[in-house]
Structure of Succinate dehydrogenase cytochrome b subunit:
Amino acid sequence: MAATQTGATSTASRNRRRPWIAEFYASSLGKKYAMAITGIVLMAYVFAHMVGNLKLFEGAQPLNDYAAWLREIAYPALPEGAALWGVRIVLIAAFAIHIHAAAVLTLRNRRARGTKYQSKRDYNAADFASRTMRWSGVIVGLFVLFHLADLTFGATNPDFDHADVYGNIVTSFSVWWIAAIYVVANLALAFHLYHGVWSLFQTMGWNQRRFNHWRRYFAVAFAVVVAAGNLSFPIAVQLGIVG
């Protein structure tokens, strides 16, 4: 009797439906939507981060004041730095979901290759874009870890000072190999942004044949603007324009 009850409980547990959001995310379509939505969140951050860092060209005081303002957002209603950490938590969650969805979709696509329905030409184009996204995504992911270690925690800078963001940036970018890492990583980010922006419009259903050329222009413009801004920082330090 006990065994029967245990079996019934086990069956009921297996048959119990998960929340609809979990069911939707489990599907390939759900993961594509998750990638698109988290991609928008990450794109907004990347753009805002680049614009804020342009204060590097205004000098030490404006950039350090900007960094202090970020730490003091919503203070004293919230403890100092709480709002900034809230943003960081959202970004970490978005980053984790983006990576997980991309990894699962990649594995599913590999398993489904035995039943390709595309023409050879379409498949080659899609495969090239997929490989580009995959490797640029890996490079960007590793770069994020390096960037945090370098300019958030100061692991590569023995004279790191949380209050002197300008000095930290100049010290790091004065080292040629660190500057080179930033250049390579931001070129990879540009390719990733271009393909990502193009893809998310299609995933979200924001595409029409007569507007697709504008979609491409936006993808190119966004990637170029972000890359140009981010690349200007290490290049300016290496050339002595900032320092």
Observations:
- The two ends are 79 Å apart (CA to CA).
- Residues 19-238 form a domain with the 3 helical TM bundles of succinate and fumarate reductases fold (CATH 1.20.1300).
